[in-house]
Amino acid sequence: MLTETRADAEINGARELALAQAWRERLEGRLNHARRIYAPPQLARRFRLALVLELLLLLLFAAMLLLWRRLRQRTSRLNSELRTQGRSDRRSETRLHAEQALSIGVLLLMLYLLVLMFGVVVVAIPGQVPLGI
């Protein structure tokens, strides 16, 4: 229920009846939009889409996890080789630092994927974004 007064009309520079009609059209439009969004078929479609996206992101996350573990193993191996050599050459040290930087980059991408996965779940539920935050 919305009450529109003469003062409202004066502030908006419109006649009372015209302002009331504009508000009525706006509210009816929003209500119809909400009915469409919350309709069971529409909700089911959104959940299916979110599920597919979540599965794709999960597969990508698993691949990134495997890559990260492999990079950590290579970094550990390079580090132990440098220690056992007793001397360090510039090329091996540079390679070790590059592997470490790449490992950190992959880890950051994995964290980003987790946040993205959470975001997809929150967006799938209409009107609940503030609840997710």
Describe the protein's architecture and organization.
By secondary structure, the chain is mainly alpha-helical. The chain folds into two domains: 1-37, no CATH class; 46-132. Helix content is 86%, strand content 0%. The chain has helices at residues 6-12, 16-37, 40-85, 90-124, 129-132. It is elongated and about 90 Å long. The model has no long low-confidence stretch (mean pLDDT 86).
Topology:
Elements: H1 6-12, H2 16-37, H3 40-85, H4 90-124, H5 129-132
Helix pairs in contact: 3-4
How many domains comprise the coordinates? Answer: 2
CA gyration radius, whole angstroms: 28 Å
| Strand segment count | 0
| Mean pLDDT across residues | 86
How far is it from the N-terminal to the C-terminal residue, by CA? 29 Å
The low-confidence runs, each spanning 5 or more residues with pLDDT under 50, are none
Structural class: mainly alpha
Q: H/E element string?
A: HHHHH
| Helical amount | over 70%
As a percent range, the share of strand residues is under 5%
Please summarize the sheet with the most strands: none
Number of helices: 5
What is the molecular shape? elongated
